[in-house]
Structures
1.
Amino acid sequence: MFWPPTLIAADGSHLPARAAEQATEQEKPAAKRRLPPAWPHSLANRTLLTLLLGLVVVQAAGLTIHAFDRIELQRFAELREIGIRVMSIYRSVVATSVGERAVTLKEMELGPGVTGAIADNPPAVPELTPPPYLGQIRVNMGLVPVRAANRAREVQIRGTPWSEMIVVAMEFPDQGWLVLRVPVPRPRPWHSPTFLLAFVLMTVAAAVLSFWAVRRLTRPVSLLAEAAERLGRDVNAPPLPETGPDEVIRAAVAFNTMAARIRRFVQDRTFMISAIGHDLRTPITRLKLRAEFIDDDEQRHKFMADLDELDAMVSATLVFGRDTADTEPAVAFDLVALLRTVLDDCADARPERADALSFTGPTHLTVTGRILALKRSFANLVGNAVKYGDAARVTLNVADGQAVVTVEDDGPGLPPDELERIFEPFYRVEDSRNRETGGTGLGLPIARNILRAHGGDVVLGNRAGGGARAVVTLPA
Amino acid sequence: MPHILIVDDDREIRELLARFLERNRFRVTAVRDGREARRNWPLGHYQLVVLDLMLPGESGLDLARWLRTQSDVPIVMLTAMGEETDRIIGLELGADDYVPKPFNPRELLARIRAVLRRTSERTEKLVEPAAKSVRFSGWTLEPSRRRLLNPDGVEVALTGGEYDLLVALVERANRVLTRDMLLDLLRGRQAGPFDRAIDVAISRLRRKLEDDGRHAQLIKTVRGGGYVLAADIDRG
């Protein structure tokens, strides 16, 4: 028989899972603080935000291209119409004699917004820009047949800077100019109402689809996180389903393999501790029997006390090792009766401290859990309070669906930097809680293991007036 | 002098325990396993069997089952440390008590004496230890699992002393039990001073049974120093 060094290491290094758990708990808030406040925290929201930003950019670009395209198209259609209209007017006017032209022009239906005049010289208006418009109008003007004798000697096409008005001046073959001012309607790229509706529908559909796709894609990540969380509490948690896209399956398989290895590790450890405990039981029993044959009463008492301490250490080690493999079923029980029982047991064991034990809280509170395990857990906390703090004042409150049990004592309290370390197996606070006061160094780790397995927890703190306070939370 | 059969596979423990019990005025036969126990069983008239749960070959549970077919000799089980399932199975099979190993010899002695005292009046008992459950006033006591359920089926924790006191009261329901009788029934179970503790345990028990101490309906105080559990007992 041997005690493996990992078992008695005081730094708890043989429990990598637990240590890692504590480490992540400490790092989590720090990691959150580094982020800018507007940036979403969840992977899903981040991906969604990125996708939506991309969608907005793409849609904006698409809309712009579409608008330009449409403007161009409308322009060409208008220029075509302008060319033909201008030429038609010219053809009618040139056919009449020089003197009648002004009257003819006046009597003609020129078209909406079009004004015409007979002039001696072309108006001083700058050349129409951009040049392609010019060519377009000329080409269209050429489409209207005119007799060779009536053809204009010169055609000047000019316009205002933004081409809201096109000015066409045509010199008659005999004398004078026909000057026509034709308004160009403003381009209306959003003219069609169905277009905008379709666009909105498209955008909404794309956004909804991205939302759905992102949720679906990031779900395996949160499932993985949940599974890791469950594994931290219970090594026998069910494995992740190995379904979905290849990458997800690979991650799930890797996770399940890791969980299986951890389970093996815990089982091996449990088995080893149990084996040691079982082996120690027989010699301790023999020694206890032998002690009965020691005639010196004082020596026998001391011998027995030593054996009881040894016994307590072995049973605590066994309980600690077996905890995860515990097969006790969960039942509905009265937490108040349990706490009172723990206090009564404690009072029976230490009658001199009976007056320092008290309970405050409701008369009943039904919770579900492994009653013997939880009793052990509370007995450890109350026992610690009495042993190191000379008192145990237990209070029970219910808040937000949680039962909150506090155990307060009148002892010297705990150094603040050891409040968390004290939950490590075999850890001992120096000075106040040395070996002289006995104990196995496993009471608090056992209590915490049991409570965490129930979805609860226990933390230690110091009271303002001195003394330690253990705060237990348990789902109610 | 009561004759006790010890079944334990460890020779040293067997011999030391035999010497210890003989010194305390018991006649002892010690055997190492189930086979020897069966061979020895007809040879003596045993008042009690101390049985180790973990035996080579036939297990302690199988042997207990066999013993139960032979007689209702009281059995005190030596169980593995706090292994609840073994303990519960042992009690369901009709073991009268259990002592976790490594046990304190004096505690084992006290348990043996208590069991002998209880079983000596077994004929007048209303409740056999093997009864599955006992109902009274809506409450359910499950001796096989050593637990108490309230009318809603919610388990109400009891200390060892409270449980034994309740069993003593339920077994003798509607009969007045004096403090001395209760002490006698329970002594050996409880280490330490239990004299005044009877009253303390009664008041704790009343609180858990929601029995108002001043107008107690369930556990009534009888003038002249005694208690009675006033309820109809329904055995199931």
2.
Amino acid sequence: MTTATELPAELADATRDDASLRRFLHGLPGVDQVGVEQRSAALATRSIKKQSKLWAIDTAIGMVDLTTLEGADTRGRVRSLCAKARRPDPERPDVPQVAAVCVYPDLVETAAEALRGSRIHIASVATAFPSGRSSRAVKIADTEFAVQAGATEVDMVIDRGAFLSGRYGEVYDEIVAVRRACGPAHLKVILETGELVTYDNVRRASWLALLAGGDVIKTSTGKVSPAATLPVTHVMLQAVRDWHTITGEHRGVKAAGGIRATKDAIRYLVAVHEVAGPRWLTPELFRFGASSLLNDLLMQRRTQLEGHYSGPNYVTVD
Amino acid sequence: MTTWNYAPAPENRDIAKLRPSYQMFVDGRFVDGEGEPLKTINPATEEVLAEVSTAAESDVDTAVQAARRAYERTWSKMPGAERAKYLFRIARMVQERARELAVLESLDNGKPIRESRDVDIPLVAAHFFHHAGWADKLAYAGYGPDPRPLGVAGQVIPWNFPLLMAAWKIAPALACGNTVVLKPAETTPLTALVLAEIIQQADLPPGVVNILPGAGDVGSTLVNHPLVNKVAFTGSTEVGKLIQRSLAGTGKKVTLELGGKAANVVFDDAPLDQAVEGIVNGIFFNQGHVCCAGSRVLVQESIVEELQEKLQYRVATLRVGDPLDKNTDLGAINSKQQLEKIVELTDSGDEEGAQRWTSPCPLPDKGFFFAPTVFSGVSQAMRIAREEIFGPVLSVLTFRTPDEALAKANNTPYGLSAGVWTEKGSRILWMAQRLQAGVVWANTFNRFDPTAPFGGYKESGFGREGGRAGLEAYLDV
Amino acid sequence: MSDSRLTVSKTYKLYIGGAFPRSESGRSYPVNDSRGRFLANAAQASRKDARDAVAAARKVAPKWSSATAYNRGQVLFRIAEMLEGRHEQFVAEVAAAQGMQPKRAQAEVDAAIDRWVWYAGWTDKIATVLGAANPVAGPYFSFTVPEPTGVVAVLAPQGSSLLGLVSVVAPVICTGNTVVVVAAQDRPLPAVTLAEVLATSDLPGGVVNLLTGRTAELAPWLAAHADVNAIDLTGAPPAVTTDLERAAAGTVKRVLRAPAAEPDWSRPPDLRRLRAFLESKTVWHPMGV
């Protein structure tokens, strides 16, 4: 197993070998399900209005990884999505651009071309997304392919089978290898929390991904239900906050899948604000993996500014 | 760095339908009392909310007589199934007027609207609903085939959960077939009087419930009235002892729910983040104006620094301010008097050598507010560890072994509640078995339900409220 | 103008999964009042309808049994509210179905409403009354809690078309079970109207499923059904009750036997019908540091 030499002693020790990693992960405090769900629900009652709501909507737009991950994706579809990423609301040039576009590796080239000159990131899924069920070689090749085509961010999946059977060292090694294959690209590590099921597992997987060098820990592939939830994201935000307390480093969180309404997006921002801290309220450290959320944000933005409810004919379908 | 200030999100005051004056509720009608009217204020702004008629001695007598008549002629003869339907009506109407009651409660008491809306008022409806269902099932409650009521109940309640305390008293009393004369606290009479409106609209026979606003003297007259058969008091241990003494030899049945100095015990294997939430909820819920507040945290010494750091971080995020703002976490202290008491006790903490940490949160410039405060390095001998502060002030003490935690937790004349935080189930049960407290919360805190009996050991009082056990207080058994 | 107005007659259908379908068999049968005059056609349910009803009851069972007792109590109370709102309609239906004088029909409907209220108040108390902390001889905390058995098939009494029906259905769902009930064969119409009340009372679809038709035809299929946990034989035709008990034995169903004669439903109930459809779970956990 490779060790990260820059980590503080207590964390470096954890990655020394399989047994140490297991002891560290199993030694993390447990998460009480009822307690975390209650706290999460209480935060969701925050009432965000007027100027702070408008700020939240614009911030959320700037945090969107505009995503298309369908078997039926075509170059045309991706180009259309990229046009929307650049200019989400054709009638309102003051609307911020999204943070990134997220596609399958074979469409990275098309996206890179379409986004040339913009500051929008090109994120690609990789490592046999969404299942993660293939050989190490295939996963590395998948990653390298995406990066060579122009991806500036890679969203990998962890091997859930290995994790759930306690082979933490394997999961760790794989993340480290993918990190290396990313080169200059940022690595997001998808935990697939819906398959991990317990909050204790989510906490352990979060720490494992952070120890292995993930820049961002991500909830879900969006292909499995449940995907992102507020309590799961809450636990992940705690992990990055605690990581910062020990190492001084800022790592990010991405909530993906099932977030469709502005109301929910704002609840996520409240969680980011109050669990991790205001420093995380930036696209560098928090993202939404979403497709239909953007249109709802745009409609709500119009409602706030125009003073009446909007409708689907006033946002574009791409 | 980004800052995100949540814009003010005020609940609409008008929903409370505040009136300039309120009257007593006696024998089914709203009437003026002979006592000097009191002015009830909004502790967040110090403005006068309304003038409230109070009872003089003669009014107490009138009310008790009305309750007696209603008991003898109507209520004790009514089948339980019919009594039940009155209580169901009241429950439903509380639900219908929930928002109005929540706003009024926050105005009069100072607690955040989020709490009155999400905790107080829903529990009020639930208590009436639950007890409605007992009215025709007393034969199954384990008190014999036909347990009888006691007669007229004289009830005195505190200011910390005004409407909820009224529900805790009125619902079981009526379910068991008693009639009631209730005195709400001097500083928080309004929601009880709106409950009286609901009771009137529910067509409850006149005299079954009577509400007499006033101060301590009214309460004293009430509990000592010869025609009152049963006394129920929730309030300070000091006053509880006075009441118990004055009832000696009278044969009146009495239940007391008094003060507390609960220990919240955190073991080294606790789910730490949830324990922090539980500690915060335990002492800062309702500004710490809770008899069962977890005001002493007993932390296993090996984790005290880590816990304290997380605790301070979390407490610093508590928003103190306008109770009507939906984002406020901590509202106003209920009265100037209470604020002075809190200040006096926290000053003693400094004098006796504890280390004080106060949240840097901004406080409003008028109204009665106190910033959340945590004392560390506290020992059992200090006043802040022994006396009930009834405010947002936490004392942190340490222990090394479970036996020591137990000894310290039980080392108090109080015994209302306790908390235990550990992942180990067997330890939870071992501690619960040995803690001298009427309510033990494990890996949670401040959970209330009408089906779960609540009450204290030792000087925290005797008698239980809620559930099957709570019926005993209102039956002749 | 109004005295020559033709009324729009109601079509009486089954109630399955929260919807009102006709029988998949397409059959119906005439229902007459106590004097033999035609009232309406009722759907004649088939074994396939019974099968679908069981599936619907099973599907919603986890949701209903895991709802808080408080929530179930409020739903049952809402049923009483809705029934009260239709008081006149039910008095007319019961009077017609059973040939009762209006005053007696009124008393029946009043009692039926009050019975829902009685059971609404039991949801959050039955665990206290039937459960226990067991003082075992060892350092263990042991407790016993009642739990709903699951899906219950109920043969409603043949005589009392509303009060009897309510008396056998309410206790079953009160504790978190879901139910497939076969209405009184010759007096099914108040049952269908009750289903309309259920459908407007926040009761999740599938918690109560109502079949109308020939009891002797449907009962054997329910008694033998492997996904039915218990059966209430109150309304079973006397000639077949033993056969039904035998069929139930095939999957060790809990059986509430048919009474010798139809009870007087106006008498206050006891806990028997609540207990009949409850399991009992005992849990042990050590107490130690």
